[in-house]
Design goal:
This protein is an alpha+beta fold and about 850 residues long. Helices cover about 35% and strands about 30% of the residues. The protein has 20 helices and 26 strands. Strands 15-16-17-18-19-20-21-22-23-24-25-26 form a 12-stranded antiparallel barrel. A 5-stranded mixed sheet has the order 1-2-3-5-4, covered by helices on one side. β23 and β24 form a beta hairpin. α1 crosses α3, α11 runs parallel beside α12 and α16 packs antiparallel against α19. It is globular.
Length: about 850
């Protein structure tokens, strides 16, 4: 046994050990150096001095590890994780002695080569100056690794070069081995040490991963953008999902989709604190496996949100790296959710960063479409764009119903039936629709054979329309069930849910059975807790209507299937689906080329002339900048769809430089507008109702209240065409502001009206004419404040090289204040730069 004060040389003098230590420990230290590849053993600097501490330490190694340039060695090594539980005390001592040397040597190399400061290493756990983005307790090889990127590297190297199996072969099942835990870090560690001539380590045998990845059948990785929706605050920008695509083997697909979501309290427990935490942090964001069938049902049927698909153009090796990364992040990633700056799209970009060869930028505001813009701007392995669109989009059942309703109307002009019968087939009453179907079925059977295909096309369109009605009914029934039940127990906190999830996902060999047990226990608990609330008697009328709609859809599909057999059309279903696909492809081909940018990082300028209230004419300059600025009718490849408008943190300033006057200023915190009505077969009015809302501050010096801070919204009645690129909408709604000006501070309330219209112009690009008019009456001051404002403009896309570069917009605007008698007119030409903001 070496005594305190002695310096025992090891490994040809490369190690010098001080303190009381046994011969077995000295041998373990020498073995630790031998665990490293030969080229790494020749570490920079002089001999490595190791001091043996007298006191035990709570983890495997002393913290801090270094003291005056010497590495500190713990007197006793406890169990750091469950993987060491199978080891004897002597084996644990041997394990931590060997790992200590690896830690010290890799730290020396890191100090000399800066490995932990490289973008590739820091991207794995999202290291910034504030710490790691990944907050999972299992994100690091050891807890100590969470202190810095340098310690993240050193602690991973410990487990990589000296796994538990190195001192006790067979202690762990293959799937529980350290090598099956961190594919990405192992790969990037090799890229760091490869310039020294270190060969790659053999690929580990990980049966569970190989069964999941199915790499021989893997085709590509897709990013899915689920359309924005006004159903809830968190869906205003849309949603991003990752989907590995395997070759279809001919059966129903239950392929895995990687959902990114935050664990939050139950809906009934949400309030203002939920919104605050969603904006500022406090909810955990993670990756969750769902089946592709479930994601399609939830998005396309339950929430009525279409899905746009984008292929991530990865090389074959990168595709394998991506699967390894998804496997890891589902099990060991927990991110801090912030709605505006770190959300589902941010998490997707973070997950892909260590996979692709090019650096991925990040916009100032992490809206999903903006993140997709940055992914598209990155270069793939072959120099092309990393992201490419896959057409056509997957339509929601409501969108598909609207398209088929137009086709059905065209068919009715060619088929022999009374107009009254066609009208009844469109009734909002399910009973009337069923009665019409019965008569039309008889008419179809008796029809001329030459009309048979048209009749069956009509029936196919009707089934697709009724599918949307059935989806709406199913959603209503689920909402009724939820509203009429009560939970007798306290809900599990998000933190407790995360803790249980982390523990379950950490150990691969018990994961499947544990998940099944948890799912069954959760189901049984829900069945015990969920009972009819005495204070909420069932609402029979909505329930009966929904159940009748579902039953009618079942009968309709059965009747149409029987009809196709009676008419001896065995391939009819396939033919009708092909017909529907051709119709969709035709619509896509007829549409203009979308602007290949989502309108994030919006910047435009207007130059023109201005006529002020005194009749003076002068130059006018206006600038509009916003983190996101998508208007109704915009046709953007990665935007929110032409039926949705979004603006976030937009600033518009207008000035008359010659007169040294700032004319007006507008600050939009958040605005959202949608022209998506109720699902068919709703009434014509319900199908053409949308809404908008705007939270903003406005400054105009000639008003009694120069500053106004507040909210206004409108219920919009609209007509729409050209796939949403043309619209006419008229709306009315409330307005509430706090006015600040010469007349003091006061509350202002009243009504607002809005007229918005866009007419699509012919051409290869989405040109158009746009009209916007608003009228407002506010009470709360010494007099009623009334004003009208309007603007008419053209939008013309300037493109070359197959890409939109600028949008030129000649415009004329006018404002009239009715209570004070002044008016103002401005004319000019706007210029929008089609491009994003620099990555941060």
């Amino acid at each position: 046994m070496a005594q305190a004060g002695d310096a025992t040389p090891l490994a040809g003098g490369r190690l010098a050990v001080r303190g009381t230590i046994t011969a077995a420990d000295l041998e373990a230290l020498a073995d630790g150096l031998s665990s490293l590849p030969p080229r790494l053993r020749d570490f920079p600097g002089g001999p490595l001095e190791v001091d043996v501490a007298a006191a035990p330490c709570p983890r495997g190694l002393v913290e801090p590890e270094w003291l005056e340039g010497r590495f500190q060695l713990c007197a006793f090594a406890p169990v750091e994780s469950w993987r060491e539980e199978a080891l004897t005390l002597d084996e644990r001592r041997q394990l931590w002695r060997r790992r200590a040397v690896v830690h010290a040597v890799i730290t020396r190399w890191d100090e000399a080569r800066g490995w932990s400061a490289t973008a590739s290493w820091r991207s794995i756990n999202g290291w910034t100056d504030d710490g790691p983005a990944n907050l999972s307790p299992f994100a690091m090889a050891r807890t100590r690794g969470a202190a810095s990127a340098r310690l993240d590297l050193a602690t991973f190297a410990e487990t990589f070069f000296v796994p538990v199996e190195a001192v006790h072969p067979g202690a762990l099942a293959a799937d529980d081995a350290e090598a099956c835990r961190d594919f990405t870090r192992a790969r990037i560690l090799h890229t760091l040490v490869a310039p020294l001539g270190v060969p790659p380590a053999p690929r580990p045998d990980c049966p569970a991963f190989e069964r999941w990845a199915r790499r021989s059948q893997l085709e590509r990785l897709e990013v899915l953008l689920v359309d924005a929706s006004g159903r809830s605050p968190e869906s205003l920008f849309g949603h991003v999902v990752l989907r590995p695509v395997w070759r279809d083997l001919g059966g129903a697909t239950f392929d895995t989709v990687m959902q990114v979501a935050a664990i939050t309290p139950p809906r009934g427990a949400l309030g203002l604190s939920h919104l605050w935490r969603g904006l500022t942090g406090g909810y955990g964001l993670g990756f969750f496996s769902l089946s592709w069938a479930d994601v399609r049902r939830e998005a396309l049927s339950d929430e009525q949100r279409s899905i746009r698909r984008f292929a991530v153009r990865l090389s074959p090796p990168e595709l394998g790296f991506a699967m390894e990364r998804l496997w890891e992040v589902e099990r060991r990633a927990r991110l801090d959710y912030r709605f505006l700056t770190f959300n589902c799209a941010s998490a997707v970009s973070w997950a892909l960063a260590p996979v692709v060869s090019a650096p991925l930028g990040s916009p100032a505001l992490d809206a999903p479409a903006a993140v997709l813009d940055h992914l598209a701007a990155a270069r793939a392995w072959d120099g092309g764009p990393l992201l490419s669109a896959i057409a056509p989009a997957l339509e929601s059942t409501t969108r598909r119903a609207e398209r088929n309703d137009d086709a059905r109307a065209r068919l009715e002009a060619e088929l022999p039936a009374p107009d009254a019968l066609w009208s009844r087939a469109r009734s909002t009453s399910v009973g009337e629709r069923e009665a019409a179907w019965a008569r039309l079925l008889a008419t179809t059977r008796a029809s001329d054979a030459r009309l048979r295909r048209r009749w069956m096309s009509w029936w196919a369109a009707t089934v697709r329309i009724e599918r949307a009605a059935a989806d709406s009914a199913a959603r209503d029934l689920a909402a009724l069930e939820l509203s009429q039940t009560s939970d007798a127990g306290a809900p599990m906190s998000p933190e407790l849910q995360w803790r249980e999830r982390d523990q379950v996902l950490e150990r691969e060999t018990v994961l499947a059975s544990k998940v099944m047990v948890l799912d069954r226990a959760t189901l049984e608990l829900a069945e015990r807790r969920m009972d009819r609330a005495a204070s909420a008697p069932p609402s029979l009328l909505p329930r009966d209507e929904a159940e009748r709609t579902l039953a009618a859809f079942d009968r309709l599909t059965a009747d149409v299937a029987e009809l196709s057999l009676d008419l001896d059309e065995p391939d009819l279903g396939r033919a009708l689906e092909e017909e529907d696909a051709r119709d969709l492809a035709g619509l896509a081909a007829a549409a203009p080329t979308p602007i290949d940018q989502s309108s994030h990082g919006h910047l435009s300028a207007v130059g023109g002339v201005d006529v002020d209230p005194a009749g003076r004419i002068g130059a006018r300059v206006a600038v509009h900048a916003a983190l996101v600025a998508q208007r109704l009718g915009d046709w953007r490849a990665r935007g929110y769809g032409p039926r949705t408008g979004v603006e976030v943190l937009g600033v518009e300033l207008a000035a008359a430089p010659a007169m040294e006057q700032l004319r007006e200023a507008h600050l939009t915190y958040l605005s959202f507008e949608t022209l998506q009505g109720a699902s068919l077969p709703a009434s014509a009015l319900a199908r053409h109702l949308g809404f908008d809302a705007r939270l903003a501050s406005d400054w105009q010096p000639l008003r009694g209240s120069a500053w106004r801070h507040g909210l206004e919204g409108h219920l919009l009645a609209f007509a729409i065409g050209d796939g949403g690129r043309s619209h006419l909408a008229l709306g009315v709604g409330p307005a509430a502001f706090v006015g600040v000006g010469a007349e003091g501070v006061r509350g202002l309330g009243g009504a607002s009206g809005r007229l918005t219209a866009r007419l699509a112009l012919p051409g290869a690009w989405p040109h158009g004419l746009r009209l916007e008019a608003r009228a407002q009456s506010l009470w709360g001051g010494p007099r009623v404040e009334q004003s009208v404002r309007g603007e008419v403009m053209a939008e013309w896309v300037i493109a070359w090289g197959g890409r939109a570069r600028w949008v030129v917009s000649p415009r004329l605007s006018a404002e009239r204040r009715l209570d004070g008698g002044y008016g103002q007119v401005a004319a000019g030409v706007g210029l929008e730069w089609v491009g994003g903001v620099p990555a941060r």
